[in-house]
Specification:
alpha/beta; 4-stranded parallel sheet; two-stranded parallel ribbon; 14% strand; globular; binds NADP nicotinamide-adenine-dinucleotide phosphate
Amino acid sequence: MLGKALLHQWTGDDITGIGSAQADIRNPDQVRTAIEHSKPDWIVLAAAYTDVDGCEINPTLASAVNTHGAVNVAKAAARAGSKLLFVSTDYVFDGKKDSPYETTDARTPINAYGRSKADAEEKLAQILPDCCIVRTSWLFGPGGKCFPDTILKVAANRKEIEVVNDQRGCPTYTMDLADAIIQLCRSGAKGIVHATNSGDCTWFDFAKEILRQAGVSTTVKPTMSDKYVRPAERPKYSILSPVSLSIHGIKMRVWQETLPDYIEERSRSNIELASSLSDRG
Ligand SMILES: NC(=O)c1ccc[n+]([C@@H]2O[C@H](COP(=O)([O-])OP(=O)(O)OC[C@H]3O[C@@H](n4cnc5c(N)ncnc54)[C@H](OP(=O)(O)O)[C@@H]3O)[C@@H](O)[C@H]2O)c1
C-alpha cells in the first residue's frame, strides 16, 4: 500500500520500485544484488510482514522479515553508501500512556509484530546510526487491504455494523505519508520521526466518518475489543506526537480531510476493475 503511494507521489527523481518478486528481504544476496545494481542515494524500506495476527501466530516469520530482513537491507545500504529510511509503527508502544507518544519514549511492544519492528529499529540504529526511522499508524490507501475498504465492503450488505471503540490512534492516508517521506528524504532527515495525519479517533469514530462521507446509511454501533478476541493484543492508545515531524517543517492534514481523496480513488479503481473485467467478457 505505502510502496504504491510512494511510486505514485515521487516525481522529479529517478525512482525504482522493488517488490518481493525482485528481492525477498530475507535473502541477503538478493537484497545486495538489487541495491548494488542501482546504488540509490536513498532507500525507503516500506516492505514488511504487516499481518499483525499472522505475526502473533508465526513470530519466527515476523522476525525473519521485519527484523532480519530490515537488517539485510541496512547492511546492503551501508555497503552501497545509500541512506536508509525505515518505516516503523505505533505498535512499538504498549498503549498505556494517555498523552501522545514522543520519539524519546521507550519501546514497549505488546505483540510479535511490534517486537519485530522494535528489534529492527534498535539494530538499524547500530548498523546505520544516521538512518531515519519513520513511525506511522493506522495506514489506509488505494491498492491494499485497509480498514476503510473493509468497512465500505461490509456496510454495502448490512444495515448495522459493530466497531470497537476502545482503541485510539491516528488514521494515516498513504499518499500524505508518502509526501512526508519524500520531504524527509530530500531534507536528509536522521533519527526517529513520528508521521501520521493530524487528529485522532477510535476505530468506531473512523468507521462512522468513512460511511458518513461515502453517503452510506448503515448504522455503526460501538463495541469493546474483548468481544472480538484476536491472536494479537493491540495497544489501547497509540497516538504519535507530531513534534518530531514539525521540527522538519512538515504538518500533515487532519485525517477527516483525507477521506474524500481516498473514497474518490477507491471508486475510480473499482470502475477500472469492473471495466477491465467486462472487456475480458
Ligand atoms: N498498515 C498499517 O496500518 C501500518 C501501520 C503502521 C506502520 N506500518 C508500516 O508501514 C509499512 C508499509 O505498510 P503497508 O500497509 O503499506 O504494507 P503492505 O500493504 O502489507 O505491503 C507490504 C509489502 O511488503 C512486501 N513484503 C512482505 N514480505 C516481504 C519480503 N520477505 N521481501 C520483500 N518484500 C516483502 C509485500 O510484498 P508481497 O505482497 O509481494 O509479499 C508488500 O508489498 C510497513 O513497514 C509497515 O510495518 C503499517
